[in-house]
């Protein structure tokens, strides 16, 4: 075994990122830009700056200075340079930033000069962040927030990612974590010292107040799960599905909304056999708009598969818009018909009805007739919007309705602004933690109460990094006088 | 002459760790020498006169299951018994007994003497002789012993310094009931620090003054009688000594005033030294907790002695101040101090320099056990002694090592915590340190560990057979309890712990059938009532369903079954796949593996283990993390590809 491990260490040594290396990378985007930032981190960072700026004074830490960068007698660029001394830096190591001019030739010149310096190497993917994490500069969720920030394409995504990176989740989870450690410490104290502690603590008397604390914590977790939907929708995008009978013009609407030909459109019923996705930015939400296969009963094998996928998309959607052809009023007999919708026995919710191809309606009277018939069929006050794909602004009403829906749903005043459960991973662990607390609250024996708390702790640990039993003991020794 | 000087294993120190280490080494078949400064201190209880407690009692049972001495010795020397936590579930019961110091010591001396292959040598160990870094012998004051493995168990003697007030002197410990102090082991400290370059640091411990029981006003204290004696060893009878009574009194505001007013009379190590947090000195208690009173337990040190150990009063004040403190306490107003309380400050080796066998990584053949590894407590010392001694013996004989995991027992938890995480204070066992607490119980220590001990020769045929017999009784009892099935409503009419809430009542009304084993999982259930109910409900008399020697274990298994099954499932899946290959391109990145600590990720990146078994051998990777890593890899890689990798491997 030992030999195997040694062999591994040798064979992987080339890719092994020892933290004593000094790494560098272009930290801004590739391509022509005004400014390009090259970041250097590690024990040799300052040395590298000195090597590139021979004869120049080092700038004071955290003060920008203009320096001419040189390599082998050649001037590479005139750059703004910044120096951070570890541990007060992003990675916790010495960090140097070179804000160069953004042309590819300049950047390549600087990078190539750096790679020729001894003990400097290009950073691996994510290595700066990894070092920051290893130095305790970032918590797990902050690393996640950083990743989200780099991927953010809407203002809400950016805002949420910033708050996560700033430690919003770390603080929230941290508070849960220390409360959980505190409850556990009290339970463990009753177990490990119950019969030795001053005044002999009665297990039942100890568990009572602990259960109250556990219930409070449980409520906090439940509240967080309540807004999970919103936080996840912000991060992963709101899923909006256009469904409806074949040939209702769903694909044309999608094309119009996306202002580009994203879906194949033809006037043969059942053309769209897959689920197509178009991304929009509405009120700061990233909206994933799905065009689905027309839903009807008679369908060939391939089309049936498309319909199955359409139903799945509806199940997973935040918002289902049902599109019908105003000129060919037809609900179909399928699962999204108003009758089925009223049964309320599945997720096939209907949020919005889109009356499409209104250009085919001759006059206002005809329009009123159709609308009132539709209202009767629906039997609810579901919003109805009218659209036409033949005018450039023909789908604006739909856009506005989607936007209103998202804002109403996720922007309400009772939502605390702080993100709590951003990723599916978070939701899973918070839910599992909550389940463990529920189980703990049913226990009458302290060691089983503690066991469930331990499981709850593991789940929180998975959110923010492991909780050590020493945390529990620390809390125990802080709060309890152990006599004997 | 040469023949006398050749051994396989030499154990330095005759305390709890040393005796167990020497006994374990000899039992696995190594010719063993136990070197001690004074034969008459072998098996001495230097501090409190008791064995066991919560968590610690588990360790005693495990030491016994591994063929050790401590359980048998307390069964001979016990004079006051208490099962701590008896009102809680069985997993956290803590058997504790007070000993007559002389009986306990005599028992250890006798047990050590009965072991073939084991010789006691009274001399000072000056140095361990190395060839390169490999152990070749131990140099004593009068002779040199050759050996291929040595175990150092010098307790508080490593550069030990005792304190009473500001007065201090080099010593490892005071000899009981005398003015004699034992000299420290400074040469060994030098060997460990300078020759082997091991990181050493200081720890502190303290012991209270001893009182003359004839001068205590017992009537002014609360009496604490003993329970019926119970056995610590699975393989012998409980103690048959007369039982004593303990008493309880307490400090008061006047006591605390004296402590505060005399804080300046304490030496720096007594106030700022790193002592055991769970067992703070009186000064620490008064300093940290705003309470008017702290408990003091008066524990007689034996049957034929007047010496009393006032548990809770440690504090190395000058003797005069100790007198004032004692006299301020109810019942102790006229009590005389026979021996002053004192503190000891000593060196310990950062246990992260050891492997899971307790071998010094830098010196093959050298092992450490007991307080020298940073622990506190007789039971911790004994457990480490067994592991170190067994491995010293096995390595000297060229045999495979003996490692217990966190799943196997508290001994495994103890070793793993020490060698992978180190310690900043004297390490004490708590049940909360054991993540598999519900399965690592005192009642099943033998079933868990004796078969393992038998494999390496730590126990003989007789114990292995006794253990197998008990296992059969347990299996049989569980089978019978599973088969005894009646309608819940019927059960509830005949057991005293029937639930009264509606939900269960409704279930019962629907005619739900429950086995006796399921009944035992209910809150407050007990085996005897379930058996009685079963007998009433059966047509034929079931008699005692579960045999006497299996009752505790069977009851505990039924109670915790749901949790035990979950552990097993969780771990079995992992175990079955231990040889599964870790993808060589696995990214040990916090984003991908957020549940692992930065330290664990760093270790995994550095080692890049090839299989899960490899990963589990890296110090500091916890079982929970391994299971998490396993789940990560399984969900990340499609099954077909994994099988192929496995096959290719």
Notes on the protein architecture:
The complex is a heterodimer of chains A (484) and B (649). Chain A is built from 17 helices and twelve strands. Chain A has helices at 2-11, 45-52, 104-115, 127-134, 140-151, 155-165, 168-192, 203-226, 228-236, 250-258, 301-316, 338-343, 364-378, 396-410, 424-441, 446-464, 469-479; strands at 22-26, 35-41, 65-71, 74-84, 95-101, 120-122, 238-243, 276-282, 285-291, 319-325, 352-356, 384-386. In chain A, the strands form two sheets. Chain A has a six-stranded mixed beta sheet with strand order 3-4-5-2-1-6. In chain A, a hairpin with a 2-residue loop joins strand 3 (65-71) and strand 4 (74-84). In chain A, helix 5 (140-151) packs antiparallel against helix 6 (155-165), helix 8 runs antiparallel to helix 15 (424-441) and helix 15 (424-441) runs antiparallel to helix 16 (446-464). Chain A is flat and about 85 Å long. By secondary structure, chain B is an alpha+beta fold. Chain B is 39% helix and 17% strand. Chain B contains 23 helices and 25 strands. In chain B, helix 4 (70-77) crosses helix 5 and helix 15 packs across helix 16. The radius of gyration of chain B is 27 Å and the shape is globular.
């Amino acid at each position: 075994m030992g030999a195997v491990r040694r062999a591994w260490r040798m064979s992987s040594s080339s890719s092994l990122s020892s933290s004593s290396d000094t790494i560098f990378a272009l930290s801004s985007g590739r391509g022509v830009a005004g400014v390009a930032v090259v970041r250097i981190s590690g024990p040799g960072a300052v040395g590298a700056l000195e090597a590139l700026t021979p004869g120049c004074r080092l700038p004071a830490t955290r003060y920008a200075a203009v320096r001419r960068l040189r390599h082998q007698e050649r001037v590479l660029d005139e750059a703004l340079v910044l120096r951070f001394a570890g541990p007060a830096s992003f990675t916790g190591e010495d960090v140097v930033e070179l804000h160069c001019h953004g042309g590819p030739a300049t950047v390549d010149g600087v990078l190539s000069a750096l790679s020729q310096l001894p003990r400097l190497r290009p950073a691996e993917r994510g290595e700066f962040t990894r070092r920051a994490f290893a130095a305790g500069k970032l918590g797990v969720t902050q690393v996640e927030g950083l990743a989200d920030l780099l991927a953010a394409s809407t203002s809400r995504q950016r805002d949420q990612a910033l708050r996560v990176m700033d430690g919003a989740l770390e603080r929230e989870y941290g508070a849960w974590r220390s409360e959980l450690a505190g409850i556990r410490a009290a339970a463990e104290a009753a177990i490990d010292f119950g019969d030795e502690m001053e005044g002999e603590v009665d297990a039942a008397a100890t568990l009572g107040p602990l259960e109250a604390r556990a219930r409070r914590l449980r409520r906090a977790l439940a509240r967080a799960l309540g807004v999970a939907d919103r936080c996840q929708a912000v991060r992963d995008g709101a899923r909006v599905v256009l469904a409806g009978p074949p040939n209702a013009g769903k694909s044309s609407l999608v094309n119009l909304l996306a202002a580009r030909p994203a879906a194949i459109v033809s006037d043969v019923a059942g053309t769209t056999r897959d689920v197509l996705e178009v991304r929009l930015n509405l009120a700061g939400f990233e909206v994933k708009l799905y065009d689905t296969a027309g839903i009807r009963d008679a369908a060939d094998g391939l089309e049936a598969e498309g319909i199955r996928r359409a139903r799945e998309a509806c199940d997973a959607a935040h918002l289902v818009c049902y599109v019908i052809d105003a000129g060919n009023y037809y609900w179909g007999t399928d699962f999204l018909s108003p009758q089925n919708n009223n049964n309320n026995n599945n997720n096939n919710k209907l949020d919005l009805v889109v009356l499409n191809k209104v250009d085919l309606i001759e006059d206002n009277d005809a329009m009123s007739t159709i609308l009132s018939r539709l209202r009767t069929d629906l039997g609810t006050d579901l919003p109805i919007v009218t659209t036409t794909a033949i005018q450039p602004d023909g789908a604006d009403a739909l856009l506005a309705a989607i936007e209103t829906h998202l804002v109403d749903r996720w922007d309400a005043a009772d939502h605390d602004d702080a993100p709590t459960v951003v990723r599916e991973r978070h939701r899973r662990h918070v839910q599992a933690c909550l389940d463990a607390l529920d189980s703990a609250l049913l226990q009458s024996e302290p060691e089983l109460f503690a066991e469930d708390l331990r499981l709850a702790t593991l789940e929180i640990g998975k959110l923010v990094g492991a909780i050590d039993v020493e945390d529990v003991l620390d809390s125990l020794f802080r709060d309890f006088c152990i006599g004997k | 002459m040469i023949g006398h000087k050749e051994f396989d294993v030499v154990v330095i120190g005759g305390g709890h760790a040393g005796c167990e280490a020497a006994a374990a080494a000899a039992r696995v078949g190594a010719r063993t020498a136990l070197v001690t400064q004074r034969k008459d201190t072998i098996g001495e209880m230097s501090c409190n006169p008791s064995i066991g407690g919560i968590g610690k009692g588990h360790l005693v049972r495990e030491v016994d299951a591994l063929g050790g001495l401590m359980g048998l010795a307390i069964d001979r020397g016990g004079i006051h018994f208490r099962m701590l936590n008896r009102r809680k579930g069985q997993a956290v019961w803590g058997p504790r007994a007070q000993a007559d110091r002389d009986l306990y010591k005599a028992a250890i001396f006798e047990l050590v003497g009965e072991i073939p292959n084991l010789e006691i040598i009274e001399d000072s160990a000056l140095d361990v002789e190395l060839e390169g870094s490999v152990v070749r012998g131990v140099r004593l004051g009068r002779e040199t012993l050759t050996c291929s493995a040595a175990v150092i168990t010098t307790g508080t003697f490593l550069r030990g310094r005792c304190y009473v007030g500001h007065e201090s002197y080099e010593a490892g410990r005071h000899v009981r009931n005398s003015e004699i102090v034992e000299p420290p082991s400074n040469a060994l400290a030098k060997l460990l620090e300078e020759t082997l370059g091991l990181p050493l640091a200081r720890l502190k411990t303290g012991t209270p003054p001893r009182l003359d029981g004839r001068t205590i006003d017992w009537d002014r204290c609360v009496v604490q009688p003993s329970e019926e004696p119970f056995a610590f060893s699975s393989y012998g009878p409980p103690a048959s000594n007369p039982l004593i009574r303990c008493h309880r009194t307490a400090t008061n505001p006047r006591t605390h005033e004296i402590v505060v007013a005399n804080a300046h009379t304490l030496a720096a190590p007594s106030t700022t030294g790193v002592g055991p947090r769970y067992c703070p000195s009186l000064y620490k208690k008064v300093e940290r907790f705003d309470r008017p009173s702290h408990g003091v337990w008066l524990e007689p040190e034996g049957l034929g002695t007047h010496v009393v150990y006032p548990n809770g009063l440690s504090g190395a004040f000058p003797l005069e101040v100790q007198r004032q403190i004692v006299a301020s306490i109810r019942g102790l107003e006229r009590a005389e101090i026979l021996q002053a309380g004192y503190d000891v400050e000593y060196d310990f080796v950062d246990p992260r320099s050891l492997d899971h066998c307790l071998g010094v990584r830098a010196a093959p053949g050298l092992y450490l056990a007991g307080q020298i590894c940073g622990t506190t407590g007789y039971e911790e010392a004994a457990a480490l002694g067994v592991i170190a001694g067994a491995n010293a013996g096995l390595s000297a004989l060229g045999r495979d090592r003996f490692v217990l995991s966190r799943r196997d027992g508290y001994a495994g938890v103890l070793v793993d915590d020490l060698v992978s995480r180190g310690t900043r204070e004297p390490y004490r066992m708590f049940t909360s340190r054991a993540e598999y607490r519900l399965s690592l119980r005192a009642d099943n220590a033998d079933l868990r560990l004796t078969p393992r001990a038998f494999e390496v020769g730590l126990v003989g045929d007789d114990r292995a057979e006794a253990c197998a017999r008990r296992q059969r009784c347990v299996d049989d009892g569980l089978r019978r309890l599973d088969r005894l099935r009646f309608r819940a409503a019927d059960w509830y009419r005949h057991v005293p712990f029937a639930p009264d809430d509606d939900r269960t009542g409704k279930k019962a009304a629907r005619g739900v059938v429950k086995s006796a084993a399921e009944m035992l999982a209910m809150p407050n259930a007990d085996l005897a009532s379930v058996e009685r109910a079963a007998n009433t409900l059966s047509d034929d008399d079931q008699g005692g369903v579960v045999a006497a020697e299996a009752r505790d274990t069977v009851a505990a298994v039924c109670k915790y079954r749901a949790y035990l099954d979950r552990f097993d499932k969780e771990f079995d899946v992992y175990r079955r796949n231990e040889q599964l290959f870790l993808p060589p391109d696995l990214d040990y990145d916090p984003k991908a593996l957020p549940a692992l600590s930065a330290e664990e990720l760093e270790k995994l990146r550095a080692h890049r283990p090839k299989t899960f078994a490899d990963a589990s051998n890296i110090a500091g990777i916890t079982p929970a993390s391994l299971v998490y890593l396993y789940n990560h890899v399984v969900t990340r890689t499609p099954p077909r590809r994994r099988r192929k990798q496995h096959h290719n491997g």
